[in-house]
Design a protein that fits this description.
Blueprint lengths: L1 E5 L13 H19 L5 E2 H8 L3 H10 L9 E6 L8 E6 L6 E5 L1
Antiparallel strand pairs: 1-5, 2-4, 3-4
Helix pairs in contact: 1-3, 2-3
């Protein structure tokens, strides 16, 4: 197994459809991929995040929200419009808090 340095330890996933025994490993892996892609602080649209990580746009949006929670480091998510404001395209940036450091084993 490969070890990746991350800013979260034992993330908790919520929702009526979440079954921890079935979903935690998959969701944690997806969350880690989104974090690894976004931790540089560069701006990306949900489509760009999807293309880079394989997480569908709705899931990528949820992962960005999750990264702001205390169990994932209390990072800051910033959102701004990209291009023609009338098109409604947004891009996102994660500013890493950096106060919690943990390792997560990835398969």
């Amino acid at each position: 197994m490969e070890q990746a340095e991350t800013l979260f330890d034992n993330p908790h996933f919520y929702g009526s459809d979440i079954i921890p025994e079935l979903d935690t490993v998959r969701l944690t892996g997806a969350l880690c991929r989104v974090f690894e892609f976004m931790k540089s602080g560069e701006w990306h649209t949900l489509k760009e995040i999807e293309e880079a990580t394989g997480s569908p746009q709705a899931s990528a949006s949820a992962h960005l929200r999750h990264l702001t929670q205390s169990d994932c480091g209390s990072n800051t998510k910033v959102k701004r419009r990209r291009g023609d404001p009338k098109q409604g395209l947004f891009e996102y940036q994660i500013i890493v808090n950096g106060t919690k450091q943990f390792t997560l084993e990835l398969e």
